[in-house]
Design goal:
The structure is a homodimer. Chain A has 10 helices and 5 strands. By secondary structure, chain A is an alpha/beta fold. The first copy, chain A, has 2 domains: 2-140, Response regulator (Rossmann fold); 157-211, Winged helix-like DNA-binding domain superfamily/Winged helix DNA-binding domain (Arc Repressor Mutant, subunit A, Orthogonal Bundle), CATH 1.10.10. A 5-stranded parallel sheet of chain A has the order 2-1-3-4-5, sandwiched between helices. In chain A, α3 packs parallel to α4 (88-97) and α7 (157-167) packs across α9 (183-197). The longest helix of chain A is centred in the last third of the chain and has 15 residues, at 183-197. The radius of gyration of chain A is 21 Å and the shape is elongated. The relative contact order of chain A is 0.10. At the A-B interface, α4, α6 and α10 of A face α4, α6, α7, α8 and α10 of B. Chain A binds a DNA duplex through residues 156-159, 171-173, 181-185, 187-192, 194, 200-202.
DNA sequence: CGCACAATACGCAGTTCTGCGTATTTATTG
DNA sequence: CAATAAATACGCAGAACTGCGTATTGTGCG
């Protein structure tokens, strides 16, 4: 039995989707939510499920944000975006957020079932049109973000320096030693770096810095 | 009747492919060539066909070059790459050359038939694994040719899995949650990973794993 | 069967990191 | 001159990580 959650703010569409999925006895719907905040709250209580079908446009917290959070916090959960928006910007954002697949709203039950299986097997289920746009994205370069460099988080020179040392796996003590400042100062720099990068630990900071071309 | 050409230098594979395609009465094979030069010469005499199934690795002129030329000279012909190479570099090159789809060699006749129809309808047929790599291409941005040779540290499957979660910045608690094991077990796995990689903290482990091509 | 090894699990102790508050000095800028 | 930002520094508390020892279960191999 494959456990599926549906996140969709429009009741009618959510219901249709649910009916389509339940046409196969292999699936059960274990969660229904109407926005990103809601599903995350539900997952925090119980994340025993395999797949989430996620709308993009929703109030409170949209599907992109929710996907970013969920793929980070529960990497084993597969997320398939399901939306009426077929533009490259939305597709690109969804992919960057970590979505595993991308379907348009009018798919057949068969295609939806197959897509869920594909996602679980590590594939990338896509609607026809989406697949074409994906290739187009690669071919034309992506909207505004093909340059992995020069992202500005407003880090000062000293902070960048500390970040470089952080990325080498040195302890605060060792960094202090290297930069001829105190342990406490290193800590404060790190705090400021984390705040500016909006992360909460060393690993995420390094990851973000690398992706932003800071290292 | 849909007219198809096969370009493939290994006779046995070409024959298998031909048999698979001819399992459906909707298709006929109008050309067989063993390299890029050959198919282009044939097309110059007569290009009355809809689809070309193209290998990548061939003598004289490879599938990428041929695709570049053909999509330029006869834009209405759809080209589906069919190869054993599933690396991002080849995929990227094929897309840039203008290929409409990308299949791996071991596809079923049904999948091949469906792919031809998809290509004709303006879609982008892809094998499972290729679709995933396409998204990965978009996500990571272009294939960096930094060939990280794979180093074997003797990590077990489970340890590799833990390492992947570690690299995402998850806490032991969160990793335990995701893998459905206890906090203590995660700790033990991490210990073993560190010992095998001969490092003493998370950052060094990730660094070494990335350089060794484990992530 | 005995052995090695992977995967599971927990306790203890010590170290390191993270978040928050507070504070001083120096340089820059409106 | 006043405001602001950067760099320096420390205390406290709690969270997370690391190293070491120990142990059980299952699996594969000679």
């Amino acid at each position: 039995m494959i456990r599926v959650a549906i996140v969709e703010d429009i009741g009618r569409i959510a219901e249709t989707l649910k009916q389509k999925i339940l046409l196969s006895p292999d699936f059960e719907i274990v969660n229904m939510a109407t926005n990103g905040k809601e599903i995350i709250q539900q997952l925090q209580k119980d994340h025993a499920l395999e797949v989430i079908i996620m709308d993009i446009n929703m109030p409170e917290m949209d599907g992109i944000e929710a996907t970013t959070f969920i793929t980070q916090r529960w990497p084993n959960i597969k997320i398939i975006m399901s939306t009426v928006f077929d533009d490259e910007q939305n597709l690109f954002n969804a992919i960057m957020a970590g979505a595993n697949g991308y379907l348009l709203k009018d798919e057949t039950p068969q295609k939806i079932h197959r897509s869920i299986y594909e996602a679980l097997e590590g594939g990338a289920p896509m609607s026809q049109m989406i697949a074409r746009k994906a290739l187009s994205l690669i071919k034309t370069g992506k909207p505004e973000s093909s340059k992995t460099e020069n992202v500005d988080y407003g880090l000062s020179e000293r902070e960048t320096e500390v970040l470089e040392h952080l990325s080498k796996g040195l302890s605060y003590e060792q960094i202090a030693d290297n930069l001829f400042i105190s342990y406490g100062t290193v800590r404060k720099h790190v705090e400021n770096i984390y705040r500016k990068l909006r992360v909460n630990n060393r690993t995420e900071a390094i990851d973000k810095a690398q992706k932003g071309g800071l290292l």
